[in-house]
Amino acid sequence: MARIGTLAEGVSAVVHDGDTVAFEGFTHLIPFAAGHEVIRQRIRGLTLVRMTPDVIYDQLIGAGCARKLVFSWGGNPGVGSLHRFRDAVQHDWPAPLELEEHSHAGMANRYVAGASGLPFAVLRGYRGTDLPAQTDNIKPITCPFTGEVLTAVPALKLDSAVIHAQRSDREGNVQLWGITGVQKEAVLAATRSLVTVEEIVDELTPVPGAVVLPSWAVGHVAAVPGGAHPSYAAGYSVRDNDFYQEWDAISRDRDEFTRWLEDLK
Questions:
Q1: Cα(198)–Cα(5) distance, rounded to whole angstroms?
Q2: Which is it for the CA torsion 214, 220, 224, 228, positive or negative?
Q3: What is the distance between the alpha carbons of residues 63 and 84, in angstroms, rounded to a whole number?
Q4: Which residues contact 126 (CB under 8 A, 6 or more apart)?
């Protein structure tokens, strides 16, 4: 059964130095508050995994938390580049950043394989791209039944996964809805997990299209209202578009970013 506690307790229990960790969410329900707590706790040497790393990963990279990024696309949505990400790759500031790049389909299938307890995923993809030449763990595989050449990618086996959701009940069952990405798969593929939620309720009432993670599949739950800001939580908050614009200026300059980082701590 999931343990219900504070954000600081949850991060301390779930995310450790050197972990392979995913902070997942798609468009909304991005676990910003949990990422900020990782920065405050000065957790280091992380391999960050995400299909679409955006501002939260820019912040984690700029704060020196990451040593490697496994991803399929990265940017400040609707604005442009991630400048702390670029600075780490181009100038090793604040530390060198190793990259492992995949396609969206490849990452999604890797999550599903990890959640299913399989060693690898097979898909039609990558052919005609130069990604196999850039990424060591993209390999051709021949179907034993048809002879078709497909692509194999290893399952994502996470030490820890962090997501944000709308609500949990007092037993630790978690409910999320709206645009969903691979949050469910990330939690199921991880040894340890933390879910921050907008609220903890007595009973989870049905919502069309909702995903429910049972308490036995969740490690820790923390009530963090607004924990997805500046992204949004469908039914609870709206996207702070101004912040994404402001982040472009903050992240372009090391001194501006350092001031933001000091204010965060």
A1: 14
A2: negative
A3: 9
A4: 103, 106, 132, 138, 151
**Paired tokens of 138:** 């993209």
The answer, yes or no, to whether the previous bond of 140 is cis (omega within 30 of 0) is: no
Helix (H, G, I), strand (E, B) or coil at 48: strand
Q: Which two tokens stand for residue 201?
A: 């309720």
* pLDDT of res. 9: 98
User: What whole-number distance in Å separates Cα of residue 151 and Cα of residue 120?
Assistant: 10
pTM: 0.96
Q: 91: buried, middle or exposed (CB in 10 Å: 19+, 13-18, 0-12)?
A: exposed
E strands, 113-176, in order? 120-123, 139-142, 149-154, 158-169, 174-176
Q: What is the pLDDT of residues 32-58, one digit of tens each?
A: 999 999 999 999 999 999 999 999 999
